[in-house]
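Our preliminary data section would be incomplete without showing what the modeling component actually yields. Below, a chain of 341 amino acids is followed by its predicted structure, encoded as tokens that our downstream tools consume directly.
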Amino acid sequence: MKNVKKMKRLSVRFSAHLAMITSLAFIPTTFADTVSYSLAAGTQPSSVSHDYKVYTPPSYDGSSALPMVFAMHGCKQTQDTILNEFGWQDTADAHNFIVVAPHSNAAATPTMENAECWNYWISDHQDRGEGMNVDLVRIGEQVERNYNIDASRRYITGLSSGGFMTTIAVATYNDYWTAGVAMAGGGYKETSSSANTNSSCSLNFTSYKTASAIASDLTAARTASPSDFDTPIMFMNSNYDCTVDIQGGITGSEGFAQFHNANIDSRLTQDCSVTDSTGTMKRIFMTAQVMTIQEVIFMQLIAQKVTTFPALKTAVITPKHGAKMPAKPLGHFSLSLIAMG
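Predicted structure:
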């Protein structure tokens, strides 16, 4: 009889402890770390596998949905470049969003030229439902299964080949991406001639598609999309970039302007003076009807420098192509994304 009573007491205690453990399982866990993930190649044409890293700010505990910002590296860079040199963690901490840094894995594609480039110039990766383009959405969907993401605030940005890939993403998956910033990139479906692979600026043989050709391709991309949402895009290019010159941003922005039946309105253009006399920045808006979905920043700067735009609370860095960026400022491009979205 005593043994029966003892077993009942132990059973009650065990049940109480089990209830406590079960309740603890539902307490949100605080994340403040960088976690590595892998995504297998999909069944879509030209899809490849990708490694990527996710950074969560200390404020994230899983209970509230946060914005997601994709930040894509350029050629000869990796996801580690994004997280180790561009300062995204500090910006994510300050403004409470999750950073996703994917790796291109161009080495897995049969037309690979540089193992770290996003293959934006190859047709297999330019349309909806194929290649690296659909892989970006697949990565985003996997992130959303693992983290609490605000589906209305999915942002994408990239530098150089990552900038061109940003344009592709905005043009084709306007039903997924909320806003994008293409840095040192250019128009939709550009060719391999859009980047200068020579070591000397004097041997620059780059050429770019016409604005009308870009607008035509954007129209075709919109036809293939189930959504009529106009994903905002910002182009950021420098006149002293010897790899992707400023014409990439000019024709890219003009192509989007034609697609939106808009023209650059000089009355909306702002000159932003630089204090150390290295040049100027121009923020160029489209006509009032579309200024909320497109903005262009052309930089006439020789040296790397951070300039702040108080109206947008945005800091930008001059992308002197190929040079190592300072530790913090590049992450602040995310503020442009969030302001636009």
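The longest strand covers residues 149-159. The chain is about 30% helix and 20% strand. Preliminary results of this kind motivate Aim 1 of the renewal.
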